[in-house]
C-alpha cells in the first residue's frame, strides 16, 4: 500500500473509532487519562532535541534496528512526544504514525512532518486488537507504574508476530532527582527488561545497552548530588549536558560512533545508561 493510501486508511479507521481531527491536523480523543510526565516535558525536550548528541544517537540506533528488523507495515510510536523519533523513521523510509497524550507534543510532531498524529494515551486512541504490525516505546515504559498492564496492552494491539521496538533508562543505581522530576517509576537492566517483556508474552530478538560513555558522568553529575540532598535546575543543566563542546564533544562522538557500529551490526554493548531492544509478539 502506498503512503497516501496508508494515511487514508488510518484516517478512516480513526474517524470510525470516534476520534476528531482538529484544524491542526491532529486526531483528538475524548478520553482523558493521567500520565506520569511533567506538564512542560515536551516543551523542554523541544528546546534541545535538534542539537542534542543524546537524541541524535538514540535516533540513529533506533533507525538502524528498524531497518534490520524491518516492520511489515506501519510502526506506531507510542508516547512519541514531539515526533523526533517518528520523523527520523519516516526520513529513513519506515512508515510511522504517532500517539502522544500531550497536545503540545502532538502539534510539534505535526510540524515536524508526521502525517498521522493521535493526541491520546494508547488506551484512548481507539486502535482495534491485533491491528498493529509494529510499535515503538522510546523512553516511555519507565513513566508507567503498571508495567505489565502497559506491555500487555501493547501485546494485545500487535498482530501475532508483530514487532516492538523499545528503549528505557538503565541501572537503578543511577536513579536521581532528574528521574523523579521526569516521572520515572524505575530503571532497567537488559535482563530485567527481557524478563518484563517475556512475562507480557514477547520473545526477545535483540537487546543491548546504549550510551556506554555515560554511566560515570551521570553518576557524578546527577546521582551523587541527589544522594547528598542537593537539588539542581534540571532544565537549566539539560542544554549544557546535551551539547558537549571541544575535546569532550570529539571524544563523545568517536565513542558513540563505535557503539552505533556495534548496534547496527546486531552486536551488543555491555553497559550504558539506556537499554534498547526488539521483541516480537508470541
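Sequence proposed for the structure above (282 residues):
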Amino acid at each position: 500500500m502506498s503512503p497516501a493510501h496508508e494515511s487514508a486508511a488510518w484516517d478512516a479507521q480513526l474517524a470510525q473509532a470516534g476520534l476528531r481531527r482538529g484544524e491542526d491536523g491532529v486526531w483528538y480523543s475524548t478520553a482523558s487519562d493521567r500520565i506520569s510526565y511533567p506538564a512542560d516535558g515536551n516543551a523542554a525536550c523541544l528546546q534541545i532535541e535538534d542539537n542534542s548528541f543524546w537524541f541524535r544517537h538514540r535516533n540513529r540506533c533506533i533507525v538502524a534496528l528498524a531497518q534490520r528488523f524491518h516492520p511489515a507495515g506501519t510502526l506506531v510510536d507510542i508516547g512519541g512526544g514531539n515526533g523526533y523519533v517518528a520523523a527520523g523513521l519516516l526520513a529513513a523510509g519506515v512508515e510511522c504514525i504517532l500517539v502522544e497524550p500531550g497536545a503540545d507534543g502532538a502539534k510539534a510532531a505535526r510540524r515536524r512532518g508526521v502525517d498521522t498524529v493521535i493526541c491520546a494515551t494508547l488506551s484512548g486512541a481507539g486502535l482495534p486488537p491485533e491491528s498493529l504490525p509494529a510499535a515503538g516505546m522510546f523512553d516511555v515504559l519507565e513513566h508507567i507504574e503498571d508495567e505489565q498492564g502497559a506491555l500487555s496492552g501493547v501485546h494485545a494491539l500487535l498482530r501475532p508476530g508483530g514487532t516492538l521496538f523499545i528503549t528505557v533508562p538503565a541501572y537503578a543505581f543511577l536513579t536521581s532527582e532528574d528521574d523523579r522530576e521526569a516521572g520515572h517509576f524505575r530503571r532497567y537492566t537488559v535482563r530485567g527488561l527481557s524478563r518484563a517483556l517475556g512475562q507480557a508474552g514477547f520473545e526477545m530478538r535483540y537487546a543491548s545497552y546504549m550510551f556506554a560513555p555515560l554511566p560515570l558522568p551521570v553518576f557524578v553529575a546527577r546521582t551523587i548530588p541527589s544522594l547528598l540532598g542537593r537539588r539542581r535546575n534540571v532544565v537549566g543543566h539539560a542544554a549544557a549536558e546535551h551539547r558537549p563542546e571541544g575535546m569532550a564533544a570529539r571524544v563523545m562522538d568517536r565513542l558513540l560512533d563505535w557503539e552505533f557500529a556495534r548496534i547496527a551490526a546486531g552486536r551488543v554493548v555491555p553497559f550504558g545508561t539506556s537499554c534498547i531492544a526488539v521483541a516480537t509478539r508470541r
